Amino acid sequence: MYLLLELAVALVVLAIVGFALWVTLWSKLLRQGFPFDEVETVTLSDGARIVLGHLKPRSDAAPLPPVMLCHGLAMNRHAFALDPERSLAARLAAEGRDVWVLELRGAHPETRNAATHTSTFDSYVEVDVPEAIDFVCAATGAPEVDWIGFSMGGMLAYAYLGALRGGRVRRLVTIGSPARFVRHPYRRFLALPGPLVSVAGRIRYTPFRLLALVVAPLMLRRFPYRLTSGMRPWNYSTSMLRSAMANSFGDVPMGVALQFARWIHQGRFDSNDGRRDYDAGLQDIRVPMLVMVGSRDRLAPAGVALHAFEASGSSEKEFLEVGRASGAGREYDHLDLLLGAHAHDEVFPAVLDWLARR
């Protein structure tokens, strides 16, 4: 009996050590440097911290405001700058734009503190977004910015410009950003029982960063499509897949994750206390807005992204579903719009054109 117990303990210890070695090894092999000219860590009014990666214009600066890019749920600032030449941040800088990439509170362990532990999506909207915009405007002397939001980054713009009546944004681009969850494909999986919610609430952060790093070395172009939610593996090289998984994902305060789970389950888009209806606030958006979505997006299907376009009060707006029907050479899933091998040629030009308009 004791021998079996000792053997079981030994196997558990070996598994833990093996797991730690696996993560450490691949972390060193797959982690890469990023081309930001400056990286600013900013302490916000509530004590939380955000990071702003800055890329200066690589050509004659266009007489246009700085561009701010905001990542999606469980991502980080590196999602916009994985490739020094072909990433969206690099492409904007090459066109003469002053580029600032926002990394929200809690995405990386280095910026966590007590102020971040209980944060929600509302914390992002009410503090991170407006204070990040204020910082960039103060640093550049510009009165406003252009905003590009990928996935949740676009949802933040919807909530900030709509329900909160925020300002200092000249033009808006959202990429794969839902604004309604009534028909979301994951809805039936998120009927979270009370005990599970209670347990999750005791965990401060979701471990997405670690999980992505564990999975990264297993990624291949032939990886089963059904197991890659948000990605069509053949739209990448194997090295791109592994780099994306190892470098572009971040953790999320548990309050944010639970708020998303509630939205998807209940079909809502509102503040955590129910006092602000972000969905209803879409009608108060007035800035020119380009809404982009992938033709095969499984996380933000065309219907839930189209709702934001139709409901917004903007008098200048366009909707683009990127896929073969719109002239692209392939169909696009969620992450393909930002990280895919052909996004540089088939997605980014529409973004650049929209932001170049006066």
What does the secondary structure layout of this molecule look like, with pairings?
Elements: H1 2-30, E1 38-43, E2 49-55, E3 67-70, H2 88-94, E4 99-103, H3 121-140, E5 145-150, H4 152-161, E6 169-175, H5 194-201, E7 205-206, H6 208-215, H7 238-247, E8 252-253, H8 254-266, E9 289-294, H9 302-311, E10 317-322, H10 336-339, H11 343-346, H12 348-356
Helix pairs in contact: 3-4, 6-7
Q: Estimate percent helicity.
A: 25-40%
At CATH's second level, what is the architecture of the largest domain? 3-Layer(aba) Sandwich
Structural class: alpha/beta
Specify the number of helices. Answer: 12
Overall average residue pLDDT: 88
CATH class of the largest domain: Alpha Beta
Alpha-carbon distance between the two ends: 77 Å
Evaluate the radius of gyration. 20 Å
Instruction: Return the domain count.
Output: 2
Find the count of extended strands (DSSP E, 2+ residues).
Answer: 10
What string gives the helices and strands in order?
A: HEEEHEHEHEHEHHEHEHEHHH
Beta-strand residue percentage? 5-15%
Gross morphology is: globular
| Unreliable residue stretches | none
